[in-house]
């Protein structure tokens, strides 16, 4: 295992130190620090939780609580493309469960899993804020509304 993967790099350290200037206490910057690391590595390992907690001078357990509370902080490796399907009540009523099943069948994974080629990870999300356009999915940062099952294979080919 590469030891550098378990250590924050100079750019991550610099960004976290810069971000610290915008907050009154180090605990307040926790999410931003986690996002900085995740943006460069795709997820945040246990070892990096330890590293970040040392820099912020907060306990690992405090940082772990924050990291696991927010579903947008990934605590295990994810695929290159992250598909989030909305499982809110409105999306469910508009067929999100069928969308989820179609995605699982095409990708041959279940919710929370990543395809063998690391191309896609499928995750639920409680709401994408587009209830008037349900059902809704998001792939990376792009939102797709009024999703039809027949459109899913075409949509996945774009990625």
Automatic annotation (TrEMBL):
* Residues binding [2Fe-2S] cluster: 86, 91, 127, 131
Q: Which UniProt keywords apply?
A: 2Fe-2S, Coiled coil, Iron, Iron-sulfur, Metal-binding, NAD, Oxidoreductase, Quinone
Q: Which GO terms describe its molecular function?
A: 2 iron, 2 sulfur cluster binding; metal ion binding; NADH dehydrogenase activity; quinone binding
The UniProt note on the cofactor reads as follows: Binds 1 [2Fe-2S] cluster.
Q: Which domain of life is it from?
A: Bacteria
Please give the coiled-coil regions recorded for this protein: 1-33
Listed SUPFAM superfamilies: Thioredoxin-like (SSF52833)
Q: Which cofactors does this protein require?
A: [2Fe-2S] cluster
What family classification does the UniProt entry report for this protein? Belongs to the complex I 24 kDa subunit family.
Q: How does it assemble?
A: Composed of 13 different subunits. Subunits NuoCD, E, F, and G constitute the peripheral sector of the complex.
User: Which NCBIfam families has this protein been placed in?
Assistant: nuoE_fam, PRK07539.1-2
Can you name this protein?
A: NADH-quinone oxidoreductase subunit E
Organism field: Buchnera aphidicola (Therioaphis trifolii)
């Amino acid at each position: 295992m590469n030891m550098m993967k378990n250590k924050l790099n100079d750019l991550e350290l610099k960004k976290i130190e810069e971000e610290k200037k915008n907050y009154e206490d180090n605990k307040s910057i926790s999410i931003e620090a986690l996002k900085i690391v995740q943006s460069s590595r795709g997820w945040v390992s246990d070892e990096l939780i330890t590293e970040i907690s040392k820099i912020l001078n907060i306990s690992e357990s405090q940082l772990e609580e924050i990291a696991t509370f927010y579903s947008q902080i990934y605590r295990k490796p994810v695929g290159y493309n992250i598909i989030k399907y909305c499982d809110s009540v409105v999306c469910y009523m508009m067929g999100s469960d069928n969308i989820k099943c179609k995605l699982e069948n095409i990708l041959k994974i279940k919710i929370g899993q990543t395809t063998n080629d690391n191309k896609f990870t499928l995750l639920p999300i409680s709401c994408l804020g587009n209830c008037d356009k349900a059902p809704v999915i998001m792939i990376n940062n792009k939102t797709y509304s009024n999703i039809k099952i027949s459109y899913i294979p075409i949509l996945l080919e774009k990625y």
